[in-house]
Amino acid sequence: MGCTATLFRVLPSSPRARTCAATVVALLAALLPASYAAADPGSSSTSERRARTSTVDARVLPAQVKAGEPASVLVELEPAAAGREVRLEQQQDDGGWVEVGSGLSDGKGRVLLDVDTTEPGLSGQAVATRRLRVVVLPTEDTAAATSASRALEIHPETNCRPRVAPVDPEANGEAICLAARLDSWRHARITGVGQQVNASSQDWAAPLDALDSTVTVVGFDLEELDRSFGYEHPFGQQVLDDLLARSRDGAVLVASWHATNPGTGGPFTDRSWRDVKALLDDSTPEAEAFWRDFEAKMALLARFQDGDGGRFPRTAVVLRPLHEANGGFFWWGKPKRAAYRALWARMQARAGLAGVHNVLWAYSFNLHTAGVRNPTRLVPARIDLAGLDSYDPETPPRRASKKLARRNRADRLGLAGYEDVARLDRVPRMALTEVGPHGSDGSWNPRVITRTVNRSLSSRRLRPVWAMLWFDDEGYAEAGTKQISSLRGGHRWLASCPAGFCF
User: Fold this and answer.
1) Residue whose C-alpha is closest to residue 387's, from 358, 405, 360
2) Do residue 284 and residue 314 come from a single domain?
3) 135/265 same-domain check
4) Domain end position, chosen among 88, 121, 155
5) pLDDT digits 0-9 by tens, 222-256
6) Residue 239, domain member (yes or no)
7) Is the peptide bond before 79 cis (omega within 30 degrees of 0)?
8) Which of 63, 70, 269, 319 counts the most CB atoms within 10 A of its CB?
9) How far are the Cα atoms of 287, 338, 342, 363, 479 from residue 380, in angstroms, in the given order?
10) Collapsing DSSP states into helix, strand and coil, what is residue 179?
11) To the nearest whole percent, how much of the chain has pLDDT over 70?
């Protein structure tokens, strides 16, 4: 019986087996190329095997915050595995590192670690820059690994540094810091997830409470909020408190304004009177009604500005008045270009006269389709942000062709007009100010948002700083289900956007 035959049959502990094994190894070493001999797995140490299979990446979300605002570090491990221990470390003045947090990875190899951004005594022109890194501990199969260090900038309220300053020359510290915050999202190529609430409903927070994960942007309507104060059993104060509390906890607030028709007193959809130019003449009854309504909305924004009498932190708001004007849906729709832009300038001036300086001004336009004008012609002279409202029609029109019917059934996000507006020099930031399905049964997949953004809007200039989904419009059968929690896969999609950021 030769060595080759016995090598695999005799117990490894036997002298004969050891002798034969040594002989075979020597013969193989002589016959094979040097590279093969060096690659003998039995000669590799455990640490060498681990080093080949373990990597860790860290991303700060967002990378620039105001002191006290939430920030997180997203950790991604390769290979992905659940239960791996990671440690968040911060660099000290002497160059050493100290642990400031820890967590366990999920099944996708991800873990989200919160960062304490409090900086007592930070004021003036000072900026606190923290260097952070992540260390993943070794296991039996994978080695320890350390990420590259990442910077987190923490600014005092009086010294935030937006890449583009607000258009209001008297913008307060909160508005300046909000602009800086949105700029940091844009620079990092991240998109915040937004959810609109119905401020005129007693269940105003239901679209948010139904979510398992957080959102970074909360939308509401000034007309709805104003109305909720005047009900027989008013709850406007509760809504206001809730919005201020969510802002305190890190949410960006975005206010729309579905203004009452100043000519008829009817709703915003009443187009029996639609002379926007008349609002520029203070002698007309329509102008008197419009500006009285406008002043009431400024009074609401002033309550955000002072934290409702100091009960909450002072809060800035993104305001998008008279939205979707390039479409014919509302009384202000399809106006004369000069009149619409002049009305915008007048609103900005009167907001300043009312002492409201906590606003970033957003021009929000409708998807450029048949019957909807090119949005570039109405862009106001001074804006802080422009945003697209794009709804995917789920129901094909009557007598639609088979091709059109198939197109309607496919989940998509239209972008017509978006890039045209984004490339204008006076547009510093972009957003998807309303997005989702129209006439939906809930099957619309919100992953189309991130897919479209990553494929078509990945550059910093085009990347939207947030994407806002509307709430479910009860009582409007044609509206269908729109909010994140009502969409099949909505929870999973939001979970794929850690800390409410998609990238």
Assistant:
1) 360
2) yes
3) no
4) 155
5) 999 999 999 989 999 999 999 999 999 989 999 99
6) yes
7) yes
8) 319
9) 20, 10, 8, 7, 30
10) helix
11) 85
Tokens read off for 200: 């005129």
Does the pLDDT at position 52 exceed 70?
no
Q: Which two tokens stand for residue 502?
A: 């998609």
Task: Indicate whether 29 pLDDT > 90.
Answer: no
Same structural domain, 77 and 184? no
In a domain, 105, yes or no: yes
85: its two tokens: 């221990």
Res. 36: pLDDT tops 60: no
Same domain, 316 and 437: yes
Residue 86: exposure state from Cβ atoms within 10 A (0-12, 13-18, ≥19): buried
CATH number of the domain encompassing residue 240: 3.20.20.80
What is the tally of structural domains in the chain?
A: 2
DSSP string computed for 429-480: -EEEEEEEEESB-S---THHHHHHHHHHS-STTT--SEEEEPPP-TT-TTTB
Neighbours of 397 (CB within 10 A): 10
Judge contact between 55 and 78, C-beta under 8 A. yes
Has residue 269 got a pLDDT over 70? yes
- Burial (CB count within 10 angstroms: exposed 0-12, middle 13-18, buried 19+), residue 248: middle
Going by C-alpha positions, the residue among 212, 246, 252 that lies closest to residue 490 is 212
Token pair, residue 146, equals 């350390």
Look at residues 94, 126, 155 and tell me which one is the last residue of a structural domain.
Answer: 155
Q: At a CB cut-off of 8 Å and minimum separation 6, what does 161 contact?
A: 127, 155, 180
Q: Is 412 inside a domain boundary?
A: yes
Amino acid at 162: P
**pLDDT digit string, tens, across residues 73-93:** 999 998 888 999 999 999 999
The CATH number given to whatever domain includes residue 73 is 2.60.40.730
Report whether 69 contacts 181 (CB < 8 A): yes
**Which residues have CB under 8 Å from 68's CB, separation 6+?**
117, 118
- 325 and 351 in a single domain? The answer is yes
Tens of pLDDT, residue by residue over 330-376, are 999 999 999 999 999 999 999 999 999 999 999 999 999 878 999 99
Q: What's the pLDDT score for residue 183?
A: 94
Domain, as residue range, for 80: 51-155
Would residue 162 count as lying in a domain? Answer: no
- Please identify which residue in the block is written with the tokens 């117990």: 11
